[in-house]
Amino acid sequence: MMEEHNFNFANCRGQSYDNAANMSGIYNGLQAKIKEISPLAYWIPCAAHSLNLVGEHAAGSCKASRNFFSLLQDIYVFFSISTARWGILMKHLTGPSVKRLSTTRWSARYEACNSMNQNWKEVVAALSEIDERDRSKTGSEAKGLKIKLTSLETAIMFAVWSPILERFDKVSEAIQKVGIGIDEVVLYYESLVDYILGLRDQFDRFEERAKINSGFEKYRSEERRATTRTVPADETRVGHTALSGRENFRVGVYLVIIDYLIRELNQRKNCYKGFAAKFSFLLKLQSISSEELKVAVTNLISSFPQDLDEKLHDECLHFKSYLAQLEQPPKTLHEMSTFIRSDKSLVQVFPYIDITIRMFLCTFATNCSAERSFSALKRILSYLRSSMSQERLNSLAVLCIEAELLKKLDFEAVLQQFAEKKARRKPLLV
């Protein structure tokens, strides 16, 4: 299709997809196939998809975390599968209803976690009522969910995951903007890393909040009888340390989740930071030394030898002096590009700087807005309209994708022409 539309891959300097192997594979993925044609087309993973993977890996880091999210889904399924159970739940709820876990947007699980955090006691009351009323399998299921829900460990998981998922959800929305740049993505990821690092010594705060919300003071592991183990003749208990229920949960669950989040965020951030570092010297022209500038320009030219040459260094020195004369110099690369291209004479004076900034800005940081257009096909081609022809489906998809442009059109002439063509009634001769 690209060849049919005369798309020149030699001019491609950036590509961005999600993290699926058929797209991001370094050997047989789409990004590898395009790099065979255009080696300078750097691949950048979608920042929003990467953030989803960060949360998904952290949620599966330990058994307690996996069981927690499974419990959230089980509670939603238990109530939503029956109108009678849902009516009992609505009778007790005072805040938002329980939500299901999103299968596509992991950060959107904040809604499910937050609703349960606000209605924890109400959900427990609804499960207790169903348990007392129904003596069949339904009552047993309600009792089982209630037992899992009524523990200090579960209350702490609610207290921990609610603020973390809220921050992830806000950042996910921010990095899905159409005009987002890779430098902004790096700042968002670094802010999340600093935020999670700050939570590492905040376990006491979450524990206190969980005790207030749930009313439990002891961990479930402390209420059970301690297990004993027969020591063989060739072993000894010297040096064996038995952790309390609190320390066992803090070390084995809380710190594991926090460390997984930090590790995954740093790993994903380095991919964007490494690419953004090639161009970051343009934002430091007024403070960077001549030697540092020369090294940065040389590294950038070696990465894009077909687009840049040694003249870029002289332009940077000239542009540095030019910016020093401005009262309010541009602060971001996007503002710098707008500033240069607003005046054709500036483009002629600083052509290589203009090329450098455009290469950076044309490299996608996220592709969610493009994928969202294809998600509209589910609304267009429903199961009831499965016989729709390909031509009509393509036409409706274009109308849905270009909805903003469609709303500005005048439909009167189109409707009149359509009505005249489709009119089947013949006027009667008088």
How would you describe the overall organization of this protein?
With 430 residues, the protein is mainly α. The protein has 3 domains: 9-43, no CATH class; 50-223 and 245-274, no CATH class; 280-361, no CATH class. The chain is 63% helix and 1% strand. The protein has 23 helices and 2 strands. The protein has helices at residues 21-24, 30-37, 47-59, 63-80, 83-92, 109-118, 120-133, 137-149, 152-174, 182-198, 203-214, 220-223, 245-276, 290-303, 311-324, 333-341, 344-349, 351-361, 368-375, 377-380, 390-401, 403-406, 412-422, and strands at residues 14-15, 42-43. A two-stranded parallel sheet has the order 1-2. α3 runs antiparallel to α9, α3 (47-59) packs antiparallel against α13 (245-276) and α4 runs antiparallel to α8 (137-149). It is globular, with a radius of gyration of 29 Å.
What is the count of helical runs?
23
Estimated share of beta-strand residues: under 5%
Main β sheet profile? 2 strands, parallel
Note the overall shape. Answer: globular
What secondary-structure arrangement, pairings included, does this model have?
Elements: E1 14-15, H1 21-24, H2 30-37, E2 42-43, H3 47-59, H4 63-80, H5 83-92, H6 109-118, H7 120-133, H8 137-149, H9 152-174, H10 182-198, H11 203-214, H12 220-223, H13 245-276, H14 290-303, H15 311-324, H16 333-341, H17 344-349, H18 351-361, H19 368-375, H20 377-380, H21 390-401, H22 403-406, H23 412-422
Parallel strand pairs: 1-2
Helix pairs in contact: 3-9, 3-13, 4-8, 5-7, 6-9, 7-8, 9-10, 9-11, 10-13, 14-15, 16-18
